Structure formats: C-alpha cells, structure tokens
Amino acid sequence: MFGNKKIWFVGVLLAAAGVGFNAVSQPPGGRRPRGGGEASLSEPFRGVSSGGKIREGLFKIESTGVTTKPVVDAAKKFLASLSEQQRARTTYPVDDLEWRKWDNRHFYKRQGVGFDEMSPAQRELVFDLMGASLSAKGLKLSKDIMKLNGTLAELANNFDEYGEWLYWITVMGEPSTSEPWGWQIDGHHLIINYFVLGDQVVMSPVFVGSEPVHATSGKFEGTIVLQDEQNAGLEFMRSLDPEQRKQAIVSSVKSGNNAVAQAYKDNIDLDYAGIPASKLDEGQRELLLKVIGLYVGNMDEGHAKVKMDEVRRHLDETYFSWVGQTSDDSVYYYRVHSPVLLIEFDHERRVAPFRTSEPTRDHIHAVIRTPNGNDYGKDLLRQHIEQHHHGHDHDHKHP
Length: 399
Known about the structure:
Elements: H1 4-16, H2 22-25, H3 34-38, H4 69-80, H5 84-90, E1 91-92, E2 113-114, H6 120-133, H7 136-156, E3 167-172, E4 181-187, E5 190-197, E6 200-210, H8 227-238, H9 242-248, E7 249-251, E8 275-276, H10 282-296, H11 301-313, E9 319-324, E10 332-338, E11 341-349, E12 359-369, H12 378-388
C-alpha cells in the first residue's frame, strides 16, 4: 500500500481542478472499506496545514468572559442519568483517540450511548446539553438533520441504517469549569465535537449535511435544512466583479463531490485557493462574514462572538474559492479558508434511496474545521498539559 499522503495530494489536486475528490476515495456505487479511513487514525494528530506546515502561536489559553457552567451542569446531569454500563461506554479520557473516530457516513460502527436506546428523559437531557452548548439555530439544525435521517429511512425503507435516533454521544474527560473536557455527537450527516477548557470553547470539527435536504412527505414533512448556507454562498459569489470572479472560481465545472476535509482528514495539507478577503470591498467583506457567521453561529451566542472576533483578526488572510456555476439552480462547492477557520459547502451526488452520477441540491455536505492544530481543541489541550503537568504525570501526554 503506498502512502496515504500521496492519495490525499492527488485528491486535493483533483478537487482543485474541479474533479470530484471522491472519485478517488469513494467510488459511486461502492462503499470504501472502513480500513481506508481508520488507517489515518494511526497517524499522530497534526491538524489541517497549508504549505506542509502548521502555523504555531495562533491559539492562546485565555479567559473569554463567557461562562461554560451551563454546559458543564447539563453534561453532569446527562451522565448522572446513565446506567453504570451505559456510562462505561460513553466516557473516555480527555485526550482519547475517540475524538477522531467520527464518520459522516451511515454504516460506521459508533461508540457511546445511542439515542435509540435512551429513555425519553435521557434524550431530553442530551438535548439540554446540546441546547446549553449551541445556539437555538444550531440546536434546531441538529434536530432537523436527525429528522431528515428519519425521512431517508422512510424513503429507502431501511430503518436499520437510517433513522431519527441513530446518533451516539460520548463525553471526553470529566465535565469541569477549570479542567479540559468535551463531548461529541456522531451519526449520519451530523457530527459535533465540542471541547471546553475553562471558559473557552472549540467547536470543530463539525459536519452537517442531509439527504434529502427537504422532507416533502412523511412524518417530518416540511423539514428543510442548509438553505441559508447554500444561498449566502451564492449571494457572496454574485457580489464579485468579473475580475474577482476569475480569481475565486477554481473551476466552473462541477461533476462530482468536492469536499476534502470530512471524516479521517484531520491531517490534510490544503493550500489556500481563490480570492483573499484583502481584495474585497467593505460590502463584500460583510457578505463573506455573513457566510461565515451562519456556520460559527451554530455555537451559543457568547462563544460564537469570541470566534467571529478571531475570524475578523485574520480576515485579510481568509480565502474564498468556488467550483461550479452561479445561476439560481446551479450546483456548486465553496470553501472559506483562513489560518483559524475552514468551511466547506458541497452539493453532492445522491446516494440513497437512489444514486445519481451528477451532484444535486438535494444532498448537501458542510464541514467546519479549525486548521493549524486546534481541531478538537488539541492545541489548547497541549498547552494546558504543558503548563500544568510539566515534569510529571506524563501519562496524560498525547501518544
């Protein structure tokens, strides 16, 4: 087997050229063997880099002044509701590899306790935890993605692989207002990694998506997701003049899937592409911040504001790139990429209940990451361990 890095590099080149990246990694009609992804878990975590290098010193341990106590309290209540056996499956050390074992596809083996086995009261406690951690919009999006997975079960008549309650939760570390910990929800088209250190939060990687994106029948009729994210990207793209568009458009042909930073891509090398925000006028910069805000705004309001301040500090180094056309019904891919933020939005091929060879607006993937080593809050965790455990307690170091 030749090195994964080579495959990634080829995939990134193909994606940049507008060729479906998944043509390399996940052929339509065939399931990639799980080992393909899991091999990456044996590599030490590095983070998403650019130019082969991780930029250091971007993330600091500092007080945000935004309390995390409601999140801590909600997590403790949820954990207290679990049986001993459930708790053993749900809790992991704070630096456990479990963080990295998420998969946006439906057939992956999950860890933790599933919504499908929880009592209604336990489900409510998880939603309370999510509600304390997320904004009202973020909680609604999460619930709607779960419902649409129920719609997919109805459409495909497959309740073993799809369903509203086929989502799992794990807790890493002990919920605390001073020590590092976090939680993860994992399941088809919905992954949230939520790391907490004191009053700081890192919410990434996050994966949100759906197929279909709109339930036109069945139990969850009327549920629809990710339309604002879709439309705001197009609105920003259309605000560019012809010269700027030329810079932003990597390819006007969108024939496959283009997302590159999904499951098992913790260590990819991704060069900046497209147009930098330094070349935008004030109105265009605001439209770009509006796009970013739709993703960052899934966190609770206080921590979203902290993150947006960080995004603004690096706005001149933020790049926007586009694959596809720009008409009202076009399918497309866009990427927002800065030293502290990576967002991908992708119209994908249909997979279930039927397959398509072309991407469609009815299957959307979106991913949010923190490049340069701070996905899962790992850079903050590393600094915390160095500050507090230096010279002893080496067991807590990353492997």
